[in-house]
């Protein structure tokens, strides 16, 4: 049986889009007959992490220690600790391939360990982390840190035996940097339909508790970062309510932009139509999805949003929800306007309001759009099917190892 060791920034039991994608990949690979384990670096900060630790039936190992010290020295210390833990684990468990996931520090640790062990390395890029830092407000495009991160990313891509990206935008950008297309493949974001494929009926008691009335309800469930564009959605609500008086906005989650968004909503002339719920336990997210008719993703136009496809719209489609989103590159890879969702101009509250008002005013079209979107997820973004794309990558690196037989 082929063994794959996944090298990770952090993992379950921490909750994030990163950990949920990791869980889906590892579970789907196990179902295909691969033997998988994960190892995390010092940025895994769950309280009292065990080593090893079994979470949801998956086994994770920890580098241990704390991340700290001066910049560059701190990062190199993290890489060294993670590489040492990989080597120690690999000598016990003997994986056939190291599969590192961004950020580049994980890739660098995997390359360092892989060279010592003679094990091939696959590096998977979920986002360019210099762009992610700009998006969440912790970095500035063009700064020394930005370019240093980009150089490190390029070094890891050069050193890896194969590179996987989550979407065409990232792959195209790497080709433009001069990397050969044959070294690059795509593993798109997906949905575990065992978790998201059976939506709950509308929770009438919760709707009454939140004062949502009969709706329709526009919703956003996720992290409140500035690049998500929730300020544009709040700014669009007066025009939406003017055309659809019963419309309500439900915002579930939290993050760096939350205080500013709450203040903006409180000052809105339609403040009574906007509800903030805060963060909710992961196992209760389905209850809030059940209240929403249209899930809206008004991301700002920038490198991050143009290059990276988000996971949330796919989860919403699987839940049988209408999806509306700004017309940026990452959304266009997932949403066909008028078929699987509705696109509107980014950074434009007026255009957003017009598009959502038109959608809310044509409920006769909703069922057909929902079904097209769910069929799209089932056919193109089901983890159980998509994870098979890894097999030829591993096979090319491990010619003497037999991959699991896959039924047609």
Automatic annotation (TrEMBL):
<dbReference type="InterPro" id="IPR028098">
    <property type="entry name" value="Glyco_trans_4-like_N"/>
</dbReference>
<dbReference type="InterPro" id="IPR024004">
    <property type="entry name" value="PEP-CTERM/XrtA_GlycosylTrfase"/>
</dbReference>
<feature type="domain" description="Glycosyltransferase subfamily 4-like N-terminal">
    <location>
        <begin position="17"/>
        <end position="190"/>
    </location>
</feature>
<protein>
    <submittedName>
        <fullName>Glycosyltransferase, exosortase A system-associated</fullName>
    </submittedName>
</protein>
<dbReference type="InterPro" id="IPR050194">
    <property type="entry name" value="Glycosyltransferase_grp1"/>
</dbReference>
<dbReference type="Pfam" id="PF13692">
    <property type="entry name" value="Glyco_trans_1_4"/>
</dbReference>
<dbReference type="Pfam" id="PF13579">
    <property type="entry name" value="Glyco_trans_4_4"/>
</dbReference>
